[in-house]
Amino acid sequence: MSGQWRSLHFAGARAPFLRRTLPALLFLCPLLAAPESPAASDVQDSCVDCHSDPDFLVTNRKLYDYFQKWTESIHKQEDVTCTDCHGGDPGVADKTRSHEGDLQASKRSSAVNFRNVPQTCGECHDEIYDGFRKSSHFEHVVAKKQEDQGPTCVTCHGSINVSVLNVNSVEQTCSRCHNDESENHPDTPEKARSLLNRFLSIHRYYRYIAVRGDPVETREFFEAVDAAIRDLSVTWHTFDLSEIEEKTAAILDTVKQKRGEVARAYKMKRQERDEQRKAGAAKE
Ligand code: HEC
Ligand code: HEC
Ligand code: HEC
Ligand code: HEC
Ligand code: HEC
To answer: Tens digit of pLDDT for each residue in 31-47?
Structure first.
C-alpha cells in the first residue's frame, strides 16, 4: 500500500489497514468519534487552532512551515493530527498547559526524539514497526558513534509530510550512509534501486489485469497479491535484501503469469466476436 501502489490499488485495498487503525484513532480522539455531539469544551484541537495562526509566517517562520507541511500531508488527509505524534493536550487553549510533557524533539522523552520515533510511528504502522525491530538499522538507532548510527522512519520518509521511497529516490537516501567512503555495505543503494525497479513491472502487469480481467474472476487473485505486497512492505523494513528479492520475484512471477492468462482469454473473446460478426454479415 505504498506510494507506488496508491494509484493501482482498488479503493478497498487500503481498507484492512484502516479497519485496524480507525477504531484506535477514534478511541484516542473522542472529539472525532462524536463530531455531531457538542464537545465538553469549545476547544476542538488547540494545537491546530493555535499553530494555524498566519502571524507565525512573520514571527516564527520555522513553526509556520511545520504547520504548512502537515496541511499538505497524507496524515492530515487521514485525520492524523499533531497530538497523535507529539502528545500534549489538545483540549486546552493555553499554550503551556497544552504543551504538557516534552514536546521539543531534542528532549530524550519527546515522542519525536529520534530514539522514540520508531515506536511513535509504530503505534499505527505496527506491522512495519515489527519488521523494523528485526533490522540491524533498529539496533543501530542508538549507536554510540554518530557515524555508526542507523536510520529511523524519519530519515527515510520525512516526519510530517511523509513520502514513500521509489525507484528515483531510494538510491540517494541509502547512499547517505552506504557509500565507498563509509565502507558500510556500499553496494546497497544500487541493489535497493534495482529491487524497487521491479515494482514498476509488477505495477504494469497488475494494471493490465485490472483493466482487461474479469472483475469477479480476478477478485481472489487481487486479494492474494495485495496481501503479498503488504507482506513485502514489512519485509522491506527488516532490510534483509535476499528475502526481499525472493518475495519480489515471486510476486512478479505471479502477476506475469496471470497477465498471460488474461491476455489469452481477451484475445479469444475478440476472435469469437469477430467470427460472429462475419457470420452475421454472410447471412445478409
Ligand atoms: C496558544 C498557542 C499554542 C497551542 C495551543 C499549542 N502550541 Fe505548540 N507552539 C506554540 C508556539 C508559539 C511555539 C513556539 C515555541 C514557544 O513559543 O513555546 C510552539 C512550539 C511547539 C512545538 C516545538 C517544540 C517547542 O516546544 O518549541 C511543538 C512540537 C508543538 N508546539 C506542538 C504542539 C501540540 C502537539 C499542541 C497541542 C497538544 C500545541 N503545540 C499547542 C503555540 C501553541
Ligand atoms: C506523523 C507524525 C507527525 C504529525 C502528524 C505531526 N508531527 Fe510534528 N514532528 C514529527 C516528527 C517525527 C518531528 C521531529 C523530526 C523533525 O524535526 O522533522 C516533528 C517536529 C515538529 C516540530 C519541530 C520540533 C522541534 O523541537 O524542533 C514542530 C514545531 C512540529 N513538529 C509541529 C507539529 C504540529 C503543529 C503538528 C500538527 C499541525 C504536527 N507537528 C504534526 C511528527 C509529526
Ligand atoms: C495515528 C496513526 C499514525 C501515526 C502515529 C503515523 N501514521 Fe503514517 N499513516 C497513517 C495512515 C492512516 C496512513 C494512510 C494509510 C496508508 O497509506 O498506510 C499513513 C501513511 C503513511 C505513509 C505512506 C504515505 C504514502 O504516500 O503512501 C508513510 C510513509 C507514513 N505514514 C509514515 C509515518 C511516519 C514516518 C510516522 C511517524 C513520524 C507515522 N507515519 C505516524 C497513520 C499514522
Ligand atoms: C543513517 C544511516 C543509514 C541510512 C540512511 C541507511 N542505512 Fe542501512 N545501515 C546503516 C548502519 C549503521 C548499518 C549497520 C552496519 C553494520 O552492521 O555494521 C546498516 C546496515 C544495512 C544493511 C545490512 C543489514 C545486515 O543485517 O547486515 C542493509 C542491507 C542496509 N543497511 C540497507 C539499507 C537500505 C536499502 C537503505 C536505504 C533505503 C539504508 N540501508 C539506509 C545505516 C544506514
Ligand atoms: C532505511 C530506510 C527506511 C526506514 C528506516 C524506514 N522505511 Fe519505510 N519504507 C522504506 C522503503 C524502501 C519503502 C518502499 C517499499 C514498499 O513500497 O513497500 C518503505 C515503505 C513504507 C511505507 C509504505 C508501505 C505501505 O504498505 O503502505 C510505510 C507506511 C513505511 N515505510 C513506514 C515506515 C515506518 C513507520 C518506519 C519506522 C518504524 C519506516 N518506514 C522506516 C524505507 C525505510
So the answer is: 444 343 334 445 689 99
